[in-house]
Specification:
The protein is 37% helix and 21% strand. It is of the alpha/beta class. The strands form 2 sheets. Strands 1, 2, 3, 4, 5, 14, 15, 16 and 17 form a 9-stranded mixed sheet that branches. Strands 6-7-8-9-10-11-12-13 form an 8-stranded parallel sheet. Strand 9, helix 5 and strand 10 form a beta-alpha-beta unit. The longest helix is centred in the last third of the chain and has 19 residues. It starts with a strand and ends with a helix. The chain binds zinc ion (ZN). Zinc ion binds next to loops.
């Protein structure tokens, strides 16, 4: 039995009543929250006591979409200005050189970055397994860092010769993909409250996977009760591809292959119409909104406001670090708020008088990054600070230059002001980041190994 007491922080619970305690705290026992509330109402002693006066403390952020391995190919000159399809076609041959060590190292780098930005649970989508790489390499890397992961067993089975986008050298047979998926679920998937590893089945996208593999993945996921994830409606090119190859728009194609349901979430979902938003709502499909990636690749702006109005669960994802070049999830919260406002501006809504304005607020954006992400991943044990939930949270010291003059609203300050590294990140009551330092690995050594691996991978 171990206990942790946090006192005198500005607590943002993100519970259903959106309660906040300006002088509040948490009492944690064995990784779960036993009590949350005003400092004066909490127990007085614990194995570890931390006074966080001057800090704002929130539920750990949930990352709903990423490709950890892409931290090795950030800012590759040839694709800095490319659109999605050209970006992919240039990077596939580089990614075909990935090794098991590359997967392990890049997982640690991405998770270290995420931890520094307040993330406590991350979903990852690994869909290439060259040179003996396995999802096991990612899971091993994640275990050392200490964040919770939803490791997606991605796949590509539709090579160029069959009309797909990726070269044949990076696609696998349906049989080997399904066999490995089953092995991973049986070896690692843990659905219990407080789970650290969950497996997700995630064929990569309509333009890199056969229809048969989509159907078979859905069948297997439902047999085992694991979730399904894929990229969908990211760009207009994809819409054209689906219409030409399948005779359906991307969402219609998903309905045809049994890929709608509360166990399904889609990355991006930018190019959807009003009826398709209703399809997501009716079937309770989730969306991982990735604002930086969509801006970086000039893909478009997802209709987040319309999704939320229809009752669709929306979480936030930093997306792969080759189409974002960072894994800063608190930064992504800020981007989500700002991009939603850009969309309002384009539609002309913001030009109406102030009384009619309803733009995305800082708290709305934080909701997407916490409760929204938890709902999208199908988890009720994370995303808010409430009795019985996982003791996953992050805290920012407000006594910093970045926040000077912004303390009229400390919660909004961490979204509106320039995002920085957080001061504390705690997962299951364990400190991953403390006073701004990553505790679970030697960060300097990790950067060195990562840069060596990136050089080797990109130069071939
Ligand atoms: Zn992606």
């Amino acid at each position: 039995m171990s206990t942790l007491l946090i006192k005198h922080a500005y607590i943002v619970t993100m519970d259903d009543h959106q309660r906040e305690f300006p002088d509040g705290g948490l009492f944690v026992r064995d990784g779960f929250i036993e009590q949350v509330g005003a400092s004066g109402e909490l127990p007085e002693a614990a194995d570890e006591v931390l006074d966080l006066q001057g800090h704002v403390l929130l539920p750990g952020l949930v990352n709903a979409h990423h490709h950890f391995y892409q931290t090795l190919t950030r800012v590759v000159p040839a694709v800095q200005d490319a659109n999605l399809f050209n970006w992919l076609k240039t990077l596939y041959p580089i990614w075909a050189r990935l090794t098991p060590d590359d997967i392990f190292i890049s997982t640690q780098t991405a998770l270290a970055e995420l931890a520094h930005s307040g993330c406590t649970t991350a979903s990852d989508h690994l869909y290439l397994f060259p040179n003996g790489s396995r999802l096991d390499d990612e899971i091993a890397g994640a275990r050392e860092i200490g964040l919770r992961i939803h490791a997606s067993r991605g796949s590509m089975s539709l090579g160029e010769s069959q009309g797909g986008l990726p070269p044949d050298s990076v696609v696998d047979s349906e049989e080997s993909i399904l066999k490995d998926s089953q092995r991973l679920i049986e070896s690692y998937h843990d659905a219990k409250p407080g789970s650290y590893v969950q497996i997700v089945l995630a064929p990569c996208s309509p333009f890199s996977v056969t229809t048969e593999l989509m159907r078979e993945s859905a069948r297997m996921a439902r047999q085992y009760g694991v979730h399904l994830h894929t990229h969908l409606a990211e760009t207009e090119d994809e819409e054209q591809f689906c219409l030409q190859r399948f005779g359906y728009r991307p969402v219609g194609y998903m309905q045809q292959v049994d890929w709608v349901g509360e166990d399904v979430w889609f990355a991006h979902a930018v190019w959807v119409n009003a009826e398709e938003i209703q399809v997501f709502a009716q079937h309770k499909c989730g969306v991982a909104h990735c604002p930086t990636s969509n801006m970086r690749l000039a893909s478009g702006i997802a209709p987040v406001k319309e999704y939320r109005a229809a009752g669709v669960n929306v979480g936030l994802g930093v997306d792969g670090s080759a189409s974002n070049d960072g894994s800063h999830l608190l930064g992504e919260v800020r981007q989500a708020m700002l991009l939603a406002r850009v969309k309002e501006g384009i539609t002309g809504y913001s030009r109406s008088n102030d009384a009619g304005r309803k733009v995305m607020t800082a708290r709305d954006a934080l909701w997407l990054g916490t409760r929204g992400g938890a709902a999208v991943l199908g988890r009720s044990d994370i995303g808010s600070l409430e009795t019985g939930k996982c003791a996953d949270f992050f805290a920012c010291n407000l006594n910093q230059l970045d926040f000077a003059g912004a303390l009229h609203d400390p919660v909004a300050a961490i979204v509106f002001c320039q995002p920085r590294g957080v001061d504390y990140t705690v997962v299951g009551g364990r400190f991953i980041v403390k006073e701004g330092c990553l505790l679970s690995t030697d960060e300097g050594r990790l950067i060195e190994k990562h840069n060596q691996a990136a050089r080797k991978l990109v130069s071939g």
